[in-house]
């Protein structure tokens, strides 16, 4: 198994930023695809875990090009690389202002305002001419339901009993129509863990983790907004965006499928927000 020591991080940064002297290195986290570090509270360095050097280099190069392009069209800051080293499989960018919304208290009045801000972001992303930089990620509703049913079977023990019949009825029902949507460029994983905010005002200050960006259903990121912040956020976002009833219907569908994925993720913060969301996702 590959390891990322502090010395390796320092060497990678020194090769690209010779004047950057890393006094402190903090491991931020590790997912399926990447491991990330913070240097001196100001620089984020992320290493790809892809074991194939050619594939790893291609991923880093493609992501760097994408982030530079997104930075030109995004209404809020995104991680724009200050260096990308395909050979080492890493890229670095200045830390963005703000704190991930996941884990912060959200007062009752805040979801509508947050929804409006995210609706503006999605309008900009979906209109962006970036199709050549990403792949298509769109599958029929039946495939979503099949995967959700498999996930539910694995996590049913974590679901409060009152919600189980409602979830099972959803899984047994046909998916919404409208698989003929036109895919658009989007973040494709815009949960609140990837939305940075000013912790004092909850104003959106940035969007991070663009590794899943794709041409996808325009309703998908609205679904994650609904999953994480509820009906007021979705209504407000769609008013700003100008979405129709079909987008709302598919957004609710994606929210219900994806909340089971979050529950399966097993991290306490994700479990807590998933269980809290059952009230609006699977009402009596």
CATH topology-level name of the largest domain:
Aminoglycoside 3'-phosphotransferase, Chain: A, domain 2
**What is the number of E strands?**
10
For CATH, the homologous superfamily of the largest domain is named as Aminoglycoside phosphotransferase (APH), C-terminal lobe
Contiguous low-pLDDT stretches (5 residues minimum) are none
Strand content: 15-25%
Helix and strand content put the structural class at alpha+beta
For the sheet with most strands, the description reads: 5 strands, antiparallel
State mean pLDDT (0 to 100 scale): 93
Q: How helical, in percent, are the residues?
A: 40-55%
The string of secondary-structure elements, in order, is HEEEHEEEHHHEEEEHHHH
* N-C termini distance: 47 Å
Number of domains: 2
C-alpha-based Rg, rounded: 19 Å
Strand order of the largest sheet: 1-2-3-5-4
**DSSP helix count?**
9
CATH architecture of the largest domain: Alpha-Beta Complex
Layout of helices and strands:
Layout: H1 6-16, E1 25-30, E2 34-39, E3 43-48, H2 53-73, E4 81-85, E5 90-94, E6 99-100, H3 110-126, H4 141-155, H5 164-172, E7 184-186, E8 195-197, E9 204-207, E10 214-216, H6 220-229, H7 231-241, H8 245-265, H9 268-281
Antiparallel strand pairs: 1-2, 2-3, 3-5, 4-5, 6-8, 7-10, 8-9
Helix pairs in contact: 3-6, 3-7, 4-8, 6-7, 6-8, 6-9, 8-9
